[in-house]
Amino acid sequence: MNLLISVDQLGNTISGGNPDSTISARVGYFTQNRDETNMFYYWKGLEKLINFSFYPLDGQDHCHQAYNKEGGKAYVKTGKDWMRFALSFIIITSCIGIIIPLVYPITFIFRIKPNPDKPNEILIQRLQSTNRELENITHLLVEKQDENENIRHAIITNQAIKIAEEVKTKLETLVALN
User: Fold this and answer.
1) What pTM was estimated for this model as a whole?
2) DSSP type of residue 81
């Protein structure tokens, strides 16, 4: 499954999208956020084809589910025409040429039912993922603070040594004068 997601992310990257995001999530984002683009009907057409292709596995709204699973990622708001052409080409050839001919017969033969959309589970997964990211950031900040403390301590120690050397020199000068 990870290999398929990687190929999906590669296709999204080639067509100008976020390398950490899937094509389905990108399409889901742009169909849900009309204000972001004037290409709503372009994205809606791609969404219909992708949703139809993955219907036997994910039910009616594959792109929406993918976007919710990847929530919080940055999406490219605009793109060049050739990037949209590349995206369309990737989606159309993979959906019509690969996914539909494989998914529909396999789900029919093995009587696989679509996964229901489980927004609470998706939300819990996103919160857990965000919590892990925050813990990592907190850990890095603590390490940086410790590093800064060590640097500050070294600077203070160095300054103290210089002051001590100056005092020693002055004392030696006073002793020599007496």
Assistant:
1) 0.69
2) H
pLDDT one digit per residue (tens) for the chain, 178 residues: 789 899 999 999 999 888 999 999 999 999 988 766 678 899 999 999 999 999 998 888 999 889 888 876 777 766 788 888 999 999 999 999 999 999 999 999 998 888 776 767 777 877 787 788 888 888 888 888 888 888 888 888 888 888 888 888 888 887 777 6
How crowded is residue 62: how many other Cβ atoms within 10 Å of its Cβ?
Answer: 24
Query: How many other β-carbons are positioned within 10 Å of the β-carbon of residue 108?
Result: 10
Alpha carbon distances (Å) from 135 to 72, 130, 153: 17, 9, 27
Please say whether the dihedral angle defined by the alpha carbons of residues 41, 47, 53 and 58, taken in this order, is positive or negative. Answer: negative
